[in-house]
């Protein structure tokens, strides 16, 4: 699976309860490998922060703030309030104390020379997410957003646009800086090649799944497999988050159909849309409709099961 | 004033209430410059920690944990418990969340190229300690302690000896590593030269005041001034802390007289001892006795006043 943050992490909980119950093609519990987006990564206060990897790790490891969907449960904010008291900028990033410890461990290991993939594996030794989590690349890729307002046209970090401006500043372009020179982290291409099928959860198709696919080599490896995606758009709105602002920036309509067309038939084999979008047709892609709101664990598991079933069916047919 | 941590910071509160009330030699409120010990500094989890500078800053700035004497008031410990959950070592250092923010700011400024003296000044912009606080040096000096136990003879960081072992492992030597190549931070020698007099608070004479004096140039500059010290030893025990363990390591008896002799008459002009040590005589040093327990603000102020009065008297006589 390719995964962004909240949507990917929640979908993974459903997928684990489907696949963990012995529905792998060989009858045993299959391994789930998650290729995580790192385009949202940011270095703040000298700390390397990987929001999407952490959201997956915390969600599957039982440490997530459930209401919020990101950050740690039972969090405190002493570090943040003290940094503000020192006048440190930026102050718009929600940095919790428990979360800070994760970033300290990561930053220390990175400066000791370990690649991000090894660091992620070490952090997962504690969290035991029950999946193999690999960052898309060990190299630095940072999504920047070109905005234009009273202060003029400029590129700002994705997090500044997303968190500080809540994606309300119109984006003229979304640039995954450094992606064209990045290489997939060790194990990424091997995992895709060895996979029975690849799933796209209802993560942001531009800044999450799109960024992962932009790492040279990953799109081609994925395209060679049976791929089923779950639409992050229901009706004409994102299920959650502000994916519409990202789609507008790249000139794609906010609809389940347009997102499938954007991924393209050379990549996607199957596409799950919500019943609200029943009747959606995309040339070359097998579209099925069902309820897509991940409203509780049972609903999420049913969506994951539908994605797995469709993937197995399409793989059988291929 | 040369200062270590808790003893120096508490004495400074008394000194501020004496000198802040207009008793400077020119009739106006004089400036107090504090040369802080940095030999206790340690880098943990990638964070540069300066325990003595922070104790002075927090104590005078109103942020100290009063009962403990170090660390922040109303502290939380989320980062520490999370680092432990990740299995990070060491776990014996009492790293609070509020305190972590200070270390993050310091570490960021240092890695941006600012010297520790400039960083300390920036941190004091927030705390407004009412004194000018300068680290003894901008270079790295780290006090190591040679110990010998079942694990063999080895040098450990002062903090490991002090905090983890509570100075209970006999010290064979105390080594301020790097001090011989260190240079005083900008402003240190100038402040000493411009001073009306120099005070040694009841800080540890070995690992606090002793380390500052070991920075080449500082001892000579201090020796040229009128110097009055306050004994950190009352009877045959340290007022607080474990100075006796440090004195033993350098072969000095734990007594007010022995500490004065260790500083030496070429450095010290006056020496305040507790009434319990009345009658102490040291060749070439004017010894006075009075109550030396800093039991409350009034008692501390009275001790500071006695030190200032003795310094002014000796300076007059010189």
Automatic annotation (TrEMBL), chains A, B:
InterPro entries registered for this protein in UniProt: CofD, CofD-like_dom_sf, FbiA/CofD
Record key words, sorted: Magnesium, Transferase
Family matches, as Gene3D superfamilies: CofD-like domain, CofD-like domains
Keyword Magnesium among record annotations: yes
Keyword Metal-binding: no
Gene Ontology molecular function, alphabetical: LPPG:FO 2-phospho-L-lactate transferase activity; magnesium ion binding
HAMAP family xref list: CofD
Protein name according to UniProt: LPPG:FO 2-phospho-L-lactate transferase
UniProt source species: Marinactinospora thermotolerans DSM 45154
Origin organism lineage: Bacteria, Bacillati, Actinomycetota, Actinomycetes, Streptosporangiales
